[in-house]
Amino acid sequence: MPSGKSIIGRNLAILLDTHALVWVGIGDPRLSEAARNAILDPDQQVLISAVTAYEFVDLNRRGRFGADLPFAEIATQLGASIMDYPAACSVIAGLLPLLHLDPVDRMLIAFAVHSDLPIVTADATIRQYPVRVIW
Fold first, then answer.
1. Distance from CA of residue 34 to its chain's centroid?
2. CB under 8 Å to 88, separation ≥6 — which residues?
3. With the C-alpha atoms ordered 26, 30, 105, 35, is the resulting torsion angle positive or negative?
4. What is the rounded CA–CA span in Å between residue 93 and residue 76?
5. Spatial CA neighbour of 14 closest among 38, 42, 43, 50
6. Which residues contact 24 (CB under 8 A, 6 or more apart)?
7. Helix H or strand E segment including 133
8. d(CA 72, CA 62)
């Protein structure tokens, strides 16, 4: 399995972490150039896990973004596909070392492992797992 180091280059598909989706949606300068380029590349398949979609909508509803962000509109503008969460990922998530205590992030890591996808994330703890990261 690839290391958790950042990668440069072309992927067929990328998986967005929630904060990356928020930051691209609001044009936040914290989004790295590599992440922005990967997300906005018209040839890149942008994927959003159903778990990330839920977290985005839930945090937005609770006012955590400081502005009302329309999930469906952002996903459509990115040409993103919302992916169902495979049942097999729950087993993988349960086997992951307890480095990250956020259950949504652990589910995202399991999804990336299961689907062999890089995650677009600034989360340093995610980099400690055997997943490819774009940042």
1. 14
2. 114
3. positive
4. 29
5. 38
6. 16, 31, 35, 36, 39, 40, 74, 78
7. strand 133-134
8. 17
Q: What is the pLDDT of residues 52-104, one digit of tens each?
A: 999 999 999 999 998 899 999 999 999 999 999 999 999 999 999 999 889 99
Task: Output the 3-class SS for 75-99.
Answer: HHHHCCEEECCCCHHHHHHHHCCCC
pTM of the shown model? 0.88
Task: Quick: pLDDT tens for 106-132.
Answer: 999 999 999 999 999 999 999 999 999
Q: Could you give the residue ranges of the DSSP H alpha helices within 10-49?
A: 18-26, 33-40
Q: One-letter amino acid identity for 97?
A: P
* Percent of residues in the chain assigned helix, strand, coil, to nearest 5: 45, 15, 40
